[in-house]
Amino acid sequence: QTVVTQEPSFSVSPGGTVTLTCGLTSGSVSTNYYPSWYQQTPGQAPRTLIYSTNTRSSGVPDRFSGSILGNKAALTITGAQADDESDYYCAMYMGSGVWVFGGGTKLTVL
Amino acid sequence: QVQLVASGGGVVQPGGSLRLSCAASGFTFNNYGLHWVRQAPGKGLEWVAFIRFDGTLTYYADSVKGRFTISRDNSKNSLYLQMSSLRPEDTAVYFCARHGVAAATYYFDFWGQGTLVTVSS
Question: Which of A46, A61, B16, B23 lies at a 20 to 30 A Cα distance from A88?
């Protein structure tokens, strides 16, 4: 069974740039998996950031961007701010009515 | 504004049943597919189930297939999750989420606050 992988944790300095990635234990990520990204702070519902690889959801600032880097999906945050400190999850559509989330990346801004 | 309000969570014994509800408002309910997604305490998100806008198509994660049933009542703007044969590993906050409406998109475009289900004796 294919598993979606993410870095467990990452840190970035305020104002810096960070790229979080989302891979597969078997094979490469492509746009055909429709990768999407979600931000979640403790005790809150997730917030949708990016869908279909690189489309920003309504109201999401343009310092959040999505792409395919090599064989992984990527979420890049430029000009990191203190309130970007959150958990970030990617999700993939595996086809045949199955969605899979990655394990999440805990981003620290310090 | 778009709202999804989940309810019906609580404490249930292993092997028991529970029915979750999600009340929707602020959008044309019968135009959208809907999902249930859960999050065990301190863990990541896990997709649970999907239902098409008209209720004619459903999908389930292997972990709940045969035990959970997703349904909707478009006349009441409501989504449901009937859970049976519950196990301790089903303990989680359950979120309802709206499916993106644009063609050929496969994502969760809006999330409601969750409801906590605890399976314990």
Answer: B23
Contact A86, A39 (CB under 8 A): yes
Torsion of CA B58, B63, B68, B74, to 10 degrees: -30
Structure tokens at A4: 């979606």
Greatest Cα pair distance in chain A: 41
| A21-43 pLDDT tens trace | 999 999 999 999 999 999 999 99
- For the segment B27-49, what is each residue's pLDDT rounded down to a tens digit? 999 999 999 999 999 999 999 99
Are A92 and A37 contacting, i.e. CB atoms less than 8 angstroms apart? no
d(CA A52, CA A55): 6
Closest Cα to residue B24, out of B106, B101, B108, B97? B97
- Chain A CB contacts of B97 under 8 Å are 46
Residue B114 contacts A where some CB pair is shorter than 8 Å:
yes
Taking the C-alpha atoms of residue A26 and residue A29, their distance in angstroms, rounded to an integer, is 9
The model's pLDDT over B53-103, given as tens digits with 9 standing for 90+, comes to 999 999 999 999 999 999 999 999 999 999 999 999 999 999 999 999 877
| Alpha-carbon distance A17 to nearest alpha carbon in chain B (angstroms) | 24
Q: Is B105 on the interface with A (CB under 8 A)?
A: yes
What gap in Å lies between CA B81 and CA B100, rounded to an integer?
Answer: 20
Provide the residue type at A49 as one letter: L
